[in-house]
Every structure is written in structure tokens, then in C-alpha cells.
Amino acid sequence: MRAIDFYCGAGGLSRGLLDAGIEVVAGFDADGRCKETYEKNNRPAQFHEQDICDVSASAVWKVLGSRRTGDLLIAGCAPCQPFSKHRKSAVDESGTVSQARDPDATLLGEFARLVEVMQPGQVLIENVPGIAKVHGFSTYRRFLKMLRANSYRIAEGVLDAKRFGVPQTRRRYVLIAVRGRAVSLPEPQFGPGLREYVTVRQAIAHYPPIKAGERHPFVPNHEAAAISSINLNRLRSTPHDGGDRRAWPAELELECHKGDHDGHTDVYGRMAWDRWAPTLTGRCNSVSNGRYGHPCQDRAISLREAASLQTFGDAYVFCGTRQHIARQIGNAVPVKFGEILGGHLLRLRNSKAGQVA
Fold this sequence. Notes:
This protein is an alpha/beta fold. The protein is 26% helix and 14% strand. The protein has helices spanning 12-20, 35-41, 57-64, 107-118, 138-149, 200-204, 229-236, 303-309, 322-330, 335-350; strands at 2-6, 23-29, 46-49, 72-76, 90-91, 97-98, 122-127, 152-160, 171-179. Strands 3-2-1-4-7-9-8 form a 7-stranded mixed beta sheet, sandwiched between helices. The chain starts with a strand and ends in a 7-residue tail after the last helix.
């Protein structure tokens, strides 16, 4: 099976598909800053810096070098936020104003356009559960209608990555569509009655200690963000192994948390060693943006630790600024999750019992 990975970012899904035995030919993404990370870790797949709105089917066929469709997987895992955003008019260097695109032309609609023209044997979408509720709801419904009209069988639902070997709660909407075969979503492998969940301890306990603002000299990307002195004091007052701000003395409380405030306690909280991590975001290396404090060291988790919680191997080296690497990691599909999805797609394609007229 060959694959094209749209919205590939740093390559989490591509790496997972490769690990499953799928030939990933290329990744497309509008953020060219991901190119070095992607190509360094996913050879021979090539990175193409291009907005999906500007990608033609003929250009993708050229990259593939073949118009075979039966063995082709087109995957789309757009960043969460843009799924309800629309492109607006723009002025180019010559002063020419480009017309705004149809307001219903979301990224999902652009992905559907390529699927309909190229007719791949397999389609995969992984995104936030809210993808089914994009503005107006019509683009999502038209996408499903298009798939069915083109003889695709569809399986869709919300899966939690921690039930597939990822040490992190990460609920994602997954859609698998195939032609000519019965279709299903993969069954969970971890959880009650199954294997024990993978924990934070298993993912990050082996990394050498570092301080806030430090970078380890030998472990790639093992660097932690610097924090202010007051936030360092807050972390020191946060109990190890899952503690939160409720243990702080009054003088360290944030103004917005004073009085009878009883809102979320994750901000400035520490992860617990023997549980799974919270959902990682593009700011997963900042203690002020979630429960991203190290279980026992007085700092946020490092970029390397965040990558491990996303199931990137230690040999997967990220390139760019610290801020952008955090985004690359937080926005990625967990590699293990991608591998499970890829392996399931291969089994569906290779199963003679699943063939349908």
C-alpha cells in the first residue's frame, strides 16, 4: 500500500504508517518549517510545502508516478483549528486582489475534492471529535455523501489513543473508508480487561534530569523551557507525582484563582508517574498551559519527554525553534496510534473474507 499524508506536519502519522509497513510517498503541509524534521525522520518520503487548497490531483499523481488507485491511501489529519476557518481575499506582491473562496470551502472540503477526483482505495481521517460539527455541519455531511456515492464503505467513531498504547488521553475522531471491502475501526488493545495502560513513568522516567531552561548535551531535544522565579516557587510548592495548585500557599496563588474559584486545577499541575498524560497541545512544554509539569523535577516536561509521550522514538530528532518544535510535537498524530491505524488498514485490504461486491 502507498500513502499520501496531507497536513503531515512533523510526520507522526507518516512515521506510524511507515512502521506499519505502508510506503509513504510524500507528505503535504503548508508549514514549510516542518520540512527538515519530516524528511530527516521519514525517508524516503518527501515533504511538499503547499496549501491543500492549491494542490491539484494531477500534481499528486505526478508525485506518485502512477495512477493506480487500489493500493493508494490518502490520509488527512488537519490541525484542529483550521477546520472551521476559511481562506480570505489576499493581495499579492503586484497588488492584485485574489477572490475569497466559497465560504463553505473548509479544509475538509478541499480534502474531499482530492479524494473524489483521485478515487483512492483507502481514505483515513484523524482529527478532533468536533470535526463533525464544523460550521454549518454541511461540509462534513457532504463529505460522507460523496464517499458513499463513490462506493466507499465507511467506519467512523471517536477513539482514545491511550487504548492503543499511547501514554496519553487523546480522544480523536477517526474515519476509515475503503472501496470493495467490509470496513471497521481497530479494536482497543489497552484498558479494562485488556493490557494495562502505558504510563508516564514508562515513557519518560529514563531521561536524565535537567533544570528549567537547560538543554541536555547528549540527548536530542531534551530541553526544558525557562520559567520565572515565581513560577519556579509555585512548582516547588506543587506536590510531586500528580500534585496541583491547591497545595500552594496564599502568596503564590494567581489572582484569577483567589477567593472561591474552583475551576480547572491542571494549569501548573504535575503529571502522575503511574497514570497517563493529559492531552498534549502545541504548548505542551509550558507549565502555565496545562498539567505539563514534570512529576518530580521543578520544570515543565522537556521537548524530548513530550515527544516520547506522543510515542516518537528517541531517534526521531526535531528541528526548529523550541516554540515551533513544541507545536510540531503537540499537533502530531501519536506514532503508535498511526501504526495501529496503518496496520488495521493493511489487514482490511489483505482480508479475502472482507471482500464485497
